[in-house]
Amino acid sequence: MNQFKKNLKKNAFDEDVMYNSILQRASKDGLRSAWAKAPKESTMLKRGLIFISMTFILIFSLFIFNPLGLFGKDQSKVVAAVISVDINPSFELSVNNGGLVIKIEALNDDAKSLDTDDLLGEPVEEVVDAIVSLATEAGFIDITDLEDDYVLVSTVLIKGTANQVGDMIQQRIRDRIHLSDPLQNVNLVQIKATLQEQMQARSKDVPVGLYVINGMIQTPNGQYISVKEFFSNSENKEAIKNRAQFNEIPEAKIRERISAALTELDEAGVDTTQLRTRLENASKETMIQIQSEVKKQINKKDGSGNDDAPGPQPDPNYDNQNQPNTDSGSETSDQNNDEVPGPQPDPNYDNQNQPNTDSGSETSGQNNDEVPGPQPDPNYDNQNQPNTDSGSETSGPNTNSGSGGSGSGGH
Prior knowledge:
The protein is of the alpha+beta class. It has 3 domains: 2-65, no CATH class; 75-249, no CATH class; 252-329, no CATH class. Helix content is 38%, strand content 9%. Strand 1 (81-86) and strand 2 form a beta hairpin. The protein is elongated, with a radius of gyration of 50 Å. The N and C termini lie far apart (210 Å).
């Protein structure tokens, strides 16, 4: 009895042990036939075996079929998406599934002038941030000129890459804007492009971003316009709004750069009191208007280049619009139109370089009463023609007689 209590206490909560113990005791006492069926396995054991089997099958499938691309390759070196960054410098970034940049390609000469070698292996959002910063330092972006600058970021997913990867990359870039001063000083536009558009862009040797936006409008002679020029036109922005996401310059940054410009005008002696008052509580639309007015004031102060041609030294052959100068019908403005270039004027020609025909003579510097030569010929008049005065062929000393010889009289 005591042993029974011990066994009951020990195995009270283990039904399998208790069941087997009872069967063994029954068989020993002759209460159970040796041909009886073996005890059934418990439900928990069956469920455990099923779970283990399913886990093994799942792992085996991942290795064999590799539906997510998680095995069989070093995923850190596999390109999942190509990100195109277009400012004026244009770059193409190859990005893996983890959002790390594994290759950077400069697409034009401006891009090649920027050193991006140390950006490899960095997160894509940090690389985009760094490129914008480098472009600003190099002068491709001027945040002080009161003109909106644009950065176009295009995402192309490689075949087999899940759409979630593209969404993740774009979201990380948007999140970076809040942490980056360079990105907050530009309007960042994001679009998605297809592999087909990327192939067509490469066949034309243009960045995919420029190819997409220029395909939305008609340009003269099919020429590609820059990102800044495209988005400065409100109609172009309207044309692409359905496939683009705009991340515009924050109002605080607009207010900040207008204040800096007003300080510049203050230093030049311009009264900016009224503009500053309007700026204090201005909405974004009003700030854009104030920005335009301030820009005009700065251009007026600087002269806007209206008096000088571009360049360190003006070219006299071009006007201030860098076009051939056609003033007064002359190609040059520094020469005297009254004199023909040359060391000495020719007396046989007038000051227009034409034969002198004054007073019926071919020369203007000689006496018209004398024929050129050392001595005048008495047989010719002063026009170098035979003298026919008074019906005589000669003009001898005496021209009062009408005969050819005055020595034979009519006596």
